[in-house]
Known about the structure:
The chain is of the alpha/beta class. It has 6 helices and 9 strands. The strands form 2 sheets. The protein has a 7-stranded mixed sheet with strand order 3-2-1-4-5-9-8, with helices on both faces. Strand 6 and strand 7 (154-160) form a beta hairpin. Helix 1 packs parallel to helix 4.
Amino acid sequence: MGPEHILSTYDRVAADFDKQRGKSLFERAWLDRMLAIAPPPRRVLDLGCGSGRPIASYLMDRRAQVTGVDGAAAMVALFTQNVPGAEAIQDDMRTLALGRRFDAVLAWNSFFHLCAEDQRGMFAVFAAHTTPGAALMFTAGHKEGEVMGHAAGQPVFHASLDPEEYRALLDAHGFEELRYVPEDPDCNGHTVWLARRRNDAG
């Protein structure tokens, strides 16, 4: 089960995934950090938004304007149902070209389903959708490699670049690294990157 099966898998298990997805909001501290640096009006692009619970719902509660993007149609349908005040778009994040910019871009537990080469290409997508000073936050692995995980009992592909390559890609695309915590014990072991688009970036 490689990266090419991710969208069909999530389409198939969307309802079970939504039921089983933890709602404790262990991500809260990181989401608050992202919102704290996002310039007003805090328009957030949530890439790989899934069913919208709990992350997009929390962002909306914090008065952010959320646009959720997911390539799985069943996930977009759930997102629309669960977060009715948000914009929902079905699209592939790898080729996304909305023609507008956001004050924060989030790829939480989504970007890491892409193969290494597609992850490299995502940094141009991040740059094309961020305003100067915007926040960028994503999760990845803590070291280079590929592993298999599970979503609603189904195997799913994960990949990561080396942390130094992520740093180089952020810098090359106009982002300043603000915080990096590998396997954060306060966030269920997630490896999290938080960056900001430089004001002088094109």
